[in-house]
Fold this protein.
Amino acid sequence: MMSHWIGIAIIVVPVLLIAALILKRPVFWFLTVLIAVGIGYLHYTGADVELGNAVLVEVDKIYPLGDGVPKPGEVGQPQPSNAPAPSGY
């Protein structure tokens, strides 16, 4: 779900910022409506999620956060014991 919003933000924010600086008010609002229609189409086809996923993958390469779960053999994770399972169940 987060990749959906990231994809939309990557598409909308730069276009609206540039349009707000360059265009007059009526043309700006017309462009805003056209962008909304275009975002609806991109959402329908799934392109916003693909773009968001691509950005999140690249960000994870730069700033790897991991999933918070240590991998086997790392400090902090209990090792499995060879003790037999308790009986009586």
In short: The chain is about 65% helix and 0% strand. The CA atoms of residues 47 and 68 lie 29 Å apart. Residues 2-62 form one domain. Residues 2-22 form the longest helix (21 residues).
